[in-house]
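Write out this protein's structure.
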Amino acid sequence: MSHLKLACKPIVILALMALFFCSCDQDLSADKTVSHRQNINTYYSSKCRLMSFSTKKMFFEELKISPFAFNSNFDNRIYLVYDAGQLSQILGGIIRPLPGTIGGYNSWTNNLQTNVVYSSDTIIVNNIGFYSKKFILQGNRIKKQVTSYSPSLSFTEIVNYSPGLHEYQYSGNLITETKNGFVRRLFYLEHGNLVKVVLFFRNTTGDILKKMEYLFSDYDQQPNLLKGKFYIHGNFFNAFSNNNYRKLEIKTYDYIDNSYQLDETQNAAFTYNLPEDMFVQECN
C-alpha cells in the first residue's frame, strides 16, 4: 500500500491541482451580488440564483489527469449564464492541449463556453475535447446518463471507459448505476450527503478485476448550491449532496483469489469558507 503515488497513478491529481491553484478570493460586494456581511438566511434565499462558484472542489472522476499547465489569467471560478431564468451557458473549465502538441497539458481557462441544451426531459452538454453527455433528471435526482467520448480522448486518459447508457435506481440511501445489465457504480448516502462511491472494473465478460472506493467526509452544515447540477463538468459526485465535503480519500483494490486486496490509497483535503468563498449569487 502506498499514499499519494500520483506519479504512477494520477487519478486524483486534478482535485489536488484545483486545491493548489484556487487561492484567489472574490469580491462579493458588487451590486445585487450577495455580500458575506448579509444574513445567512438571506444568502440562501430561493429568490437568489447562483452566478459563479469556486473550482476548489471540482473533481473530474472520469479522467486520469496529467499535471496542469499553469494559467495565470484564470480566476479560479466558473460562471453561469441564464436565459429567461433558465441556466443556458457555463463559462470556464478545463481544456485539452491543441492537437499535435507534444507533452502538452490540460489547463484551466475562463475562455470556455459550454452550452446547456434542453430537449423535453433531457439536458445535453458537450464538454469539448472530452465527451458529450445527455442527462435525464427528476428534480435533484439523476435517472439516466448517456456518454459519448471525443475521438481525440485517448483510452489512457480515462479511468474506466464506459460509453453509452447508464441508468440509476434508488433504494433508501443506496443509488445503483447499471450499464448493460451490470452494476458499474454504487453511491452511498448518509444524512443527505454522498459518503462513498464504489466503481467496479470488469472484463469483457463482466467479471470484476478491481474496484475503486471514493470516500467523502468532513461535511459542513451549509447548503451545497450545486446539488442536482450533474451536468456541470467536474461536479458529478458533488451534485448528490446537500452539504459540502472537505475531505476525499480514494482507495484502489485488486480482486485476487475472490477477495479484494488494497493496492493504493490517496487523500485530498479542501479548505474554504462558506458561503462567500465558494458561491456568488444574484438576488432580487
